[in-house]
Every structure is written in C-alpha cells, then in structure tokens.
Amino acid sequence: MAAAGALPAEWIKNWEKSGKSEFLQLCRTLSENKSHENVTFRDIQQALYELANHVVKGNLKHDQASNVLSDVIEFRDDMSSILADVFCILDIETSCLEEKSKRDHFTQLVLACLYLVSDTVLKERLDPETLESLGLIKQSQQFNQKSVKIKTKLFYKQQKFNLLREENEGYAKLIAELGQDLSGNITSDLILENIKSLIGCFNLDPNRVLDIILEVYECRPEYDEFFVPLIESYMYMCEPQTLCHILGFKFKFYQEPNGETPSSLYRVAAVLLQHNLIDLEDLYVHLLPVDNAILEEHKREIVEAKQIVRKLTMVVLSSEKTEEKEKEKDKEEEKTEKPPDNQKLGLLEALLKVGDWQHAQSIMDQMPPFYATSHKPIAIALCQLVHVTIEPLYRRVGVPKGAKGSPISNLQNKRAPKQAESFEDLRKEVFNMLCYLGPHLSHDPILFAKVVRLGKAFMKEVGTSKKLNSEDRMVKFQSDGNKQEDKDKMEILFSCLLNITDQVLLPSLTLMDCNACMSEELWGMFKTFPYQYRYRLYGQWKNETYNSHPLLVKVKAQTIDRAKYIMKRLTKENVKPSGRQIGKLSHSNPTILFDYILSQIQKYDNLITPVVDSLKYLTSLNYDVLAYCIIEALANPEKERMKHDDTTISSWLQSLASFCGAVFRKYPIELAGLLQYVANQLKAGKSFDLLILKEVVQKMAGIEITEEMTMEQLEAMTGGEQLKAEGGYFGQIRNTKKSSQRLKDALLDHDLALPLCLLMAQQRNGVIFQEGGEKHLKLVGKLYDQCHDTLVQFGGFLASNLSTEDYIKRVPSIDVLCNEFHTPHDAAFFLSRPMYAHHISSKYDELKKAEKGNKQQHKVHKYITSCELVMAPVHDAVISLHLPKVWDDISPQFYATFWSLTMYDLAVPHNSYDREVNKLKVQMKAIDDNQEMPPNKKKKEKERCTALQDKLLEEEKKQLEHVQRVLQRLKLEKDNWLLAKSTKNETITKFLQLCIFPRCIFSAIDAVYCAHFVELVHQQKTPNFSTLLCYDRVFSDIIYTVASCTENEASRYGRFLCCMLETVTRWHSDRNIYEKECGNYPGFLTILRATGFDGGNKADQLDYENFRHVVHKWHYKLTKASVHCLETGEYTHIRNILIVLTKILPWYPKVLNLGQALERRVHKICQEEKEKRPDLYALAMGYSGQLKSRKPYMVPENEFHHKDPPARNAVAATVQNGPGGAGLPASLTINAAKLEESTAEETDKLKEKTQGAVKVINKAANATPKVTTSNGNSASNSKIIKEKDDKEKSGKEKDKEKKEKTPAAIPEAKALGKDGKDKPKEERANKDDKSRETKEKTPKSDKEKEKAKKEEKTPKDEKSKTVVTNAESKFAAEKEREKEPSRERDVAKDMKSKENIKGGEKLSVAGSLKSPVPRSETSESEREQKRRKVDTHSSPSHSSTVKDSLSELKDSSAKHYINHTTPALSKSKEREVDKKDLDKSRERSREREKKDEKDRKDRKRDHSNSDREVPQDSTKRRKEENGTTGSSKHSKSESPSDSPRSNEKEKEKNKSKSSGKEKGDSIKTEKMEKSSSGSKKESRHDKEKTEKKEKRDSAGGKEEKKHHKSSDKHR
Description:
By secondary structure, this protein is mostly helical. It is 73% helix and 1% strand.
C-alpha cells in the first residue's frame, strides 16, 4: 500500500491544526482537475483509502474521519460511490486480519459514515456478514438465499406465452397494425407502442412478433424508412442475437434439396446488415454451402476447363467422336438435379443491389478470386453499383462530345458508397470494385466503355500536366506549379489505371463477343500510353491472363480451334470472307489468333500474301497487338536463327521479315517497337534481325537493294529522284509516300535514325570479328552483306526523306563519326554525303538570292564559293582520319572531294532520260489508240504522262547545269589534288587504297562512280596522276581483292572492273579516240632514260599500238588471276571470281585464246562441283553459258593488238614480253626501230623452234622456259597465235626458216650462258633481300614491269612495219644481225654489272613508267619472280630459278640477236640433240614411276627447306617434260593455255615434211602427250612428283623443289 504517498505522517500528527485542511485542499484540487478523468478518479480513491486506513490502524479517530468525509462528499456527485468502493476493499482486507481491533475500527468508521452512503449501495458492495454486524440486514444467511431465488427467477425461469393458434386475435391485430397504409403521418414509434400493448394485452411471444415484423417487411420492401427504425427500436427490448437467429432459421428453412430462397429474404438480410442491426459473421454461419464446398467446386471447374482444352487440341477419330458425344449427354442429364441455392451468393447480390459494398467485399474475400462475379447476376449487380458510383465524374469528363447518354439515378440510401467526383475518388472507390469484377466486366459493355473513357480523360489530363517518359518509366511533370504530392497522386493513379487495364479491361474484352467498337474504344486510351507499357500489357494478356480463370482457358482453346479452321481454308481466292472471319475473331482475342497465324507463316511462306490481304478488317488495337506478337515471335529464344547447315539464315526468320515488310507497309501500325527491337539486337551484337529492317525499308520506302540491277537501272539511279523512281527499281515503286512518312516519323520521334545507322556501320566488322566466331564463312559473308546492304538502303532512305534541318541536326561531323563513334570511313562519308550536298545547295541558293547576277560565270563562281564554305571544315576534319604521311601524296581536299561527290555530280544519264521519256510517249500513244477507255480517263492519263515527261526533262536540265558547275569546280581544284611528295607510284597506291577500293565495293552506284572518277581525273589532266599506272594496278593483281570480298562485294567489284574495262576498250577500239582522249594527256606519259645512247632525258607519250599491247597484257593478267582463283578449290575464291567474271563479260574476254583457257577451267569447275557444292555449280554453269554466247565476238590475238598482217611475228614477241612482265630490259628499247625488229623476229623464231623439235636443246630450252617463268603464260599464248599464223604460211617455208634459225642460236647462247653464270651467284643474296622487300612493294614492282613491257612493245610495232616478206626479211635482217649482237652484248653486260652494284637496293620506279636507272633483263625477271612469289603465297621458283633466270634471260636475249647472223647448222645436229633429249626424258619417266612413293614422304618431311638452288639443267628439263612453262609455281595458272599449245604443236609437226623432223616430232609428240595432256588430266600433285624426280637427278636442289610443290599444294 502506498498510503504514505498521498497522506504524509505530519498531516495525521497535526490533524486538527493543519492536516485536515491540507487533506480537504488535496481532495478539492483532485476533484476540480477534469482533464484526466480516470487518473483523478484513481487519485481520489487512493486519498480516501489512505484516510480510512489510518482510522483502521488507529492513527486517526473515526469521528475525525467522518467529519472530514462529510465535507469531501460534496466535491463530486459520485463521491459516495467511491467511498463505498473504499469500504468494500477494507471490508475484504480486515476480514482476513486476525487483529480484532482493526476490524472494530473499520466497523465504527462505517457506522459513523452511514449517513454519507445509502444502504442500497452498501448492501450491493459489502459482505453479508459485515452488513449483519452493521445492522443493515437481520440475517446474512436469509439474505443469501433470497438473492439466489431472484437470480433463478430472472435467468432460468421461462415465462409461458400464447402461440399463434391460441391467441388469433392478438396476432391478427399485430398484422393489421403492420399492414396498414403507412403513407400518412404514422411513425415507427407509434406502431411500436401499439405492438408493445398488443404483446402485453394478448401475452404474445416477443420473438414471434419479431418474426412477423420481418415477414411483413419482406412483403413491403419499399418501406425501408419505416421498418428499419421499427426493428431497430424493437431490438432494444430483445437480446442482440435474437434477430440474427430468427433470420438464420428463415434461411435454414430453404436449405432443402430443391428449395429456392426468395430474393425478398436476401434483401431484408442485406438491409439489416447495411444498418448494422446484425453482424455478417453471425449470419454467415447460417448460410450454405460452406466455404470448403465452394472451393471444391471452383477447382472442379478449372479441371473441366482444362479437359475441354485437351479435347480441342487432340485429334479425335470419327468413331470416338460419337462415343464422346453420348458420354457428354449423360453427364448433362446428371447435372439437371439442381443443388440447393448458393445462399451466400444470393445475399451478396442483394448487398450489392442495396449498395452495401463493405459487407459485399468481405463475402467475396471468403471465396476464390472471381468465383462470385463469374455468376452473371452478381456481375451485373456490381456493374450497376459501379455505374452509380462513377456517374458524376463520367458526366463531367467522360461523355464524348455530342453524346447525350442516359443519366443514372443515385441509390436512395445514404449508406451506399460515395459517388466519385474526381479521379482520386475513382481510385479509392471504383478501382477496387472493378478488380473484383475482373474479366466479368464483359457482361456490361456500356460500363466497359465508360471506364475506358474515364481512363482516356485521365490520360488527357495527365498529358497537359506532365510527360510520360518511357525511359525510366516515370511520370515527369512539366509544370512547376504542381507539388510533389500531386505528382505522386498522378503516378499512383496511372499505375492503378494500368492495373485495371491488365486485370479487368483486356480480360473482359476477351470474353466479349467480337465487339469491334469496344476494341476501338480501348485503343483510344491505349494510344496515349508509350508502346513499352502497351507491349507489357499485351504480354501479360497473352501469356498470363488466359490461365487465370477457367472461362478464359476455354475461350483460348476455342479461339485456337477456330483459327485453325480459318487458316486451313485461307487462299488467295477467298481472302475477303476469310479476312472477315479473322477480323471477327481478332476483335476479342487478337493475341492468341496472331500467335497462331504467325506460327503458320513461319512454316509456310506462301501464306504471307493472303494473310496480309486478309488483315484489312482489323481494329487499330489489333494492329498494335500484331506488332507486339511479331516482335515476340522474332525474339523467341527457342528458335534457331540459322538452318542446320549453318550457312543460311533460317527460313522462319526470312518469312517473318517478309511478312513484317508487307504488313507494316499496308496497314497503319506503329513501328517504334520493332525498330527499337532491331536497335537493341544490334547493341547486343546480333545482326540477324537486320533482315527485318531491310524488308521494312524496302516495302515502306520503296528503296530496294539488289545486286541484280541491270546497267540501265544503274544508269537511271545516277539521275534525279524522278528518274530513279521511273527507271531505277525492279518493282513498281508507287504510293510509298504515306508509308515512308510513317517510317520517318517513327524514326525521328524515337530518335532511332542515327543510332541505327551507327550500330549497323559498327556491326559490319562485328559480324566478322565477334558474331562470326565459329560460324561458316558463307554465313558470315551473308550476314556482312545483309548488314552492309541494310546500311546502304537505310542511309538512302534517310537521305531522300529527311529534311535538310533534320539531317544536319542528327548527323555529326565526319571526324566525330569516325573518331568518337568508330564508324568506318566509307560508311561515315556515306552518311555525311547528303548533308554536304544539302549544305552546298542551300548556300548556293542564298548567294544567288543575295546577288541577282544571271550570267553563267557568276553562277559558277557562286557555286564554287559555296562549295569552299561548306567543304573547308570537312577538309580540316578529314586530316585526323589518316596518318600525316598520307597527306604527302594526296591532299585532304582531293580525299574529301572524292568521298563527297556522287554519280549525280559527275555525269548526266541522257540515255536514261531519253529512254523514260520515250516510254511515256509510247504510253500516251497507246492511250490515244485505246478505244475502250472513257474520254475523261484518257484525258487524266495523258495529263499524268505529260506532267511526268515535263518533270523528267526539267530534272535533266537541272542536272546538266549542276554537272557543269561541278566540273568547273573540279577544274579549279585539280592542281592541288595530288602533291606527289614521294612518287607517282605511292600516290596511285594511296589513291587506290584510301579512295577507290573502299568505295568501289560499297554499292553498285559507287562502283560505277569510282570508274568514272578515275576517268575524270585523267580527263582533267590532273598533275602527278598517271592514268596508265592506275589502270595497270587495278587490272594486275585482282586475286587478293577478289578473295577478300563477300558475295555482294564481289558483284560490285565486278561492276567496277567492268566500267574500267569499258573505258579501256573504248580507247583500244579506235586510234582516233585514243589520240583524242589520251594522246597528249599527262596520264599516258612514259619517261625513258638510257645511258650511252641518247645522253639526255626524253619525255614521251605511250603511242596507240603500244597501248594496245598493254591492254592485251591486262587481259592476260585478268585471265591468269581468274584461272588461279578457279584452281584453288576454295569456295570463296571460286564463287567470287565467277561473280566478277560474269559482271565483266561485256568487255572480257575479248581475245580468243584467253577465252578458251577460261572456258576450259570453268568447264572443269562445272564437273567437279556438280555434286559437292551446287551453288558453285549453278554459278559456273551460268557463266559458262554466257561465255559461249560471247564467243563470236572474240578475236584472235593478232587482231587484238596488231592490225597489219606482216607483223604477226612481232605480235608473238609482245605476247612473250607483254603479259608476263618485262622480258626485255627497259633500257634496250632506245634504238627502237632496229632493236625491236630484231628482237621481235628472234623471239618469234625461237618460239617456232620450240614448236618444232628443236625445243630440246639445252640453252634454247633455257631461254624459252625462262621467259615463261617470269612471264607466266605469255609464251604459250604467243605460240598459239603463231601457230595460227604459221598454218597460213606454207609448211615448207616454215621448215626452212626453222632450219636456218634454230641451230644458229646454240653456240652463241652457250657462250653467253657461261658468261652470265658467275653473276647470278653474287646476286642470289641480293635477291633474297629483295624478295622480302618486294613483298611490301609488290604493287610497285608490278607496275614497273608492266611499264617496261609497254615500252618494249612500242618499238616492236615499228619493227613490225619494217619487216617485209619472209624472203626479204632474211637478207635485211642478216645485215642488221651482224651489227647488233656485239652492241647488244655490251648493253647486257653493262646492265648486269650495274645490277650487281645495285643488288641490295630497293628498285623503285621514280614516278614514271620506265625506271630511270637502266635495268637489265635480270632485274626485271627478278622482280617478276618476287611478285610471283607474293602472288602465290609461297615462292617455289624464287630460289631455285634465280640462277637460271639470270643466265637464261641473258641467253635468250643473246639468242634473239644471234639467230639472224649465224649461218644455219645442219639438221643432223638438231636430230642428235633431239635424240639425246628423248633418251633423257624416257629415263626420267622410269625413275619417276619408281620414286613416286618416296616423294610423297619426302615432301612432307622437307616442307621447310626452302632456300636451296636447283641447277639449270634440271629446271630446263622439268620445263620441257611438263611441256609447259617449267616453273612448278605456275603449273596451276598455266594449265589453261598448255593444252591448246600442245595440241597445236602436234598438228604443226604433222605438217612439217623433213624426215628428221618427223622422227623428232613423233617422239616429241609422245613426250608432250604424256606431259602436257598430263598437265590437264593429272593432278597437280602428279606433276609435282615428276618434277621432284628430276630434281633428285640434279645434284644439289632436290629437297628444295619438294618444298615448292608442297607449298604449291597449300596454295
């Protein structure tokens, strides 16, 4: 006890003085403190308790206490009750104490205070014994008994009432009371009083009365205001549970098997629940069925739905079908026995109808989701409640303009949910109701429309106050006035709206029966969402929603079933009816339908067209869903994007892409999602899906990218936009205006234009280095082409569709593109080019407006000024793209000019314009002639054609002016283009490397542009530009370029070569054209420098005849490269060279023997590849056919580059020297006429010898093959031609010539050979060094060689003219020969010595075609060899034939001259030599057979020994045996020309009559048949074996040769 707390001991001690007053003061203070009522109450109790406790203990007298208490009692009304409580506590405490005194003190205190507390209160609270001792009761025992009796009477005794049958009158009066007309001023209170008196009067049972009140209320539901207060006030007289029990009994009554609970009872229960007269928990237990039963039923429904689905997807045979149907009938009959009502749902419906949402919600929460609303009456009741709730808000913001709508009256009860006045109310009240409705909103389309319209209105409101940023999926507000709270509210509202759409609107649409209007209504709201949200909703709808509810599961199965039915019957013929069915089905279930349709399209691509046509009955929402479904199908991770062979893109992807293009073009579908998908795939380094972009751009913008363009189309593509549209494309490009506008808008709105370009440009290399990985080379090429083509196509679309401002705003400057975005240079310029053109034209227009000067000069001046203004920054920008060294050779201005111009700037395609104009004229004539066409249509058509014609002519005029301005500008610029700080050769290298090659494979038009540009630079007489070198470099080594192209690049490269060849062929065809276009142009300048003759430098032009030699050399080089590629066996090499050859067919091959060589190789490919690689076989067959058709246009070699018949011999010589690389030293051509006469004739004679039997002689053999080693096939070509010529001569004449010439060569040749043998040793080392250098310099050395050849050819022409008939020529020549040889030898020696000194240095061509330092044949051949080495990857002939080449070349040149002077040797010598050779060859063939086996092993073992030499003889022998040009290295490339040579030789030999020769010939023929036919038939590898054997004979170099062969093979 904390007594001391409130009453200090001092107060008790000094009670009379101060204690009493202190205590009173405390009580007063506590009583007045009203703020904390219960605290005060406790404190007063405590104070009084402590006071009484002091009395009990004896510290205070009871009268003192009673005095003070009589004062305190007045402070509070309930003070006496508080005092009684205190006495009660003390009574209990003191009765337990043993000390009697304390009990006495207590009793005295109570007695003293009796006047303060009433007896009744004390009797209530004190113990009966205490009461007895106080004298308040007589006997405690009696008192106890009495209280028990009263309690029993109160709680346990039942009063006896009269029931209905007993007291009819009372109940009749009761019903009369309740059933009277209540419309007057009768109140429930009045009636209640009457009821009370009836109960009293007739002693009625109150429960029964309540029951009757409820019955009457059921019958008079309209009197809520009367009955509810009546029941409420009546309930004050009853137990709280009574009403609930009575209702429960009523519901129980109807729970019989066929009982049906009346709706009136549900309504009464609902109203009572709404007014809280009963508790739902109390009533709920009385209702059936129990919750578990409901759950079971729900599960059963789901199982049934799944079974239905399974049945629909199963294939059922007809016999089974009938059984199934019977079973189903039985089941349905069983179902007819109706279970008792679901009273919970009945009550729920009633609650919804009276608007009691809280109770309704709690009932629905007890059930499985959507179980309640799946019952139509409940769904409709809930919809009605929602209608009422949203009415005011809908009237304010949702009603469309002009619509009246029928207003909905409010519920006539105050407890219904509050009506929504704002969107916030909507969220709080309505969204929750809708969530309970779920898919069953479908029962009320009107409400569906209202909800959607409210959503639309909300989005509109959001739109004015904020902007949806799709990136971070946040709602961003523009207006600053909005507080954070508003933002949050908006965000929450928006997410709620999305939820409602996902859970309610879309599922409800699914269950609506093809309601197109609802679909459109919903789209009105959807189109305000960013596509990311929409697609997320569609994804949920398609993949989640359909599994959430048994009804939806069934609908899904039925939709798929119906879709199958339609798709099976869809054809081109019934597009319309099928389209209508598809439309009908798609209104409610688009996701499922499209998913199935797309799966069919992926399997059968012939469905694409009918499906696209049949989609015209779709709603806007469905088109959007279709876009989503397409993206989902594309992104399907389970599908492989490659076919099983891993070399082609899967057909499903190709079909989808094609469908995409068609459907997006035809229908107004939003593209943003698809474009973003492609961009995302590119970001992830996947380029397969570019196929889609390619198709979409092609179909929507009408921009095709095809490698199959004809030259006419290409020409049209170089004109203006109108010409492009009319003549440039395969398809009819009509009506793409709208679709291309849509595509443009989608790209700009979502900022995808530039990112897509950059991603594609970067991905081109990604395809090879990242994506390529383990993929097949063919597929990598395809992907690269697809990526590149799409970039070109897409860039073209942007250039032609974006406005100047849009373009310039989006495309950064060239240095940023290349250095920051790492865009390849070709692509970067491709993107920037339209920008420069736009810029220049707008600047030009500005300047024109500023000054009105109309003169052409003024205009040109302004144009040039505007070009300078625009291009100056570009010139500065490009400097950063390459190393500073580059700009030593070409200027940034030249580089930028090359990359910024297009074909439109260089030439006007007059032919194309004329062609299209003529077409239109023909059309107009046809319109005139057409009798059936109505006149007004005729007029329209004619007007259209005329307008088009005028447009084309106007465009042509405009382009012509433009081209003239551009050419003026180039004329002014050209002097600063090529700086040539190093050499012309370097300049050409840079030009080809940085400009021509990258651009000529960029697109077909660029290929044509490059060829034109080269010609233009030539025509402009650009300083430091060697046209000859440029063409030479382009035609000389095409192997590497061809091998490294993809399929489409090869096609473009072929176009480029074709255009280059066209120019060359034009110059070649006519001397006048050549003189006019090249005669005195700096591009055809050749500089000859020689020592000892002229003394000075003499500048010279390449004359026409020499130019023709050079062209022949180029043709020969192309043949060699082609044959090489065809023989590699490599897929890429063969495919690409066939593509290139097909493209250059109009201009190559022109020479018969080259054509034949090609034809044989291609024929071989056809045979080899027929089974192995069908695509190569198809290409080869195609080319072969076209080649045959070109045969009539081919000419013999002598017609190709020498028109005068006497000069046949000279031609041969040229062939030998020309094509193969300079056989004769450059410096020997100074004494042109004389020298060349002799040389030419000698070479001819040599060749004739080789054709005859004399070929065997060692030194002579030395010469011929050697020339060939350096020259490739040249010898063979020349032989063929010679043979043709020879046939024209009489056989005898030939014999004489041969006899005279042949032997003559031998002695001298030997001498010279010996002479020359020392030098090669010294030079070997140099050559090795040089060979390394040449690898880097290959292109240069080629050019030098070719230059040299050209020059040699020049004098040959003159020579050819001087040669008279055969008889005369001998005499004339003999005199010359006597003079020549000595001089010739000096020159040769001279050169050799110089060559040795120069040995280690690099041989560079200082800007001219001729080397300034005299070069011996040796140096030429070395270079040639080095180049071959590089050409063929391994250098078999390098080391082995160095020595030979030196000596043999010397020999050959010597022989040329000696031939004419020496007297003829006897035939017998010839024969001897022949026989010896024959014997040797026979021995060799035997050895060959023995050693075959050994060689194979050796070859493997000795792969690495590459630097040993082979003595001359073996080399020569090898050459002879093979009957071709002995170098193993060239065995491949020579085969084409071998066989014709050998055959023709055989013919010749048969002709020749001398008996000795006959013997020799026959032997020779055998040998040649073995070897040269071998070269055709035998595998390369056999040839190699034979060569090995010979090598083995020759002491030193066996292993080395093995190495050549093996390396050959590897090649």
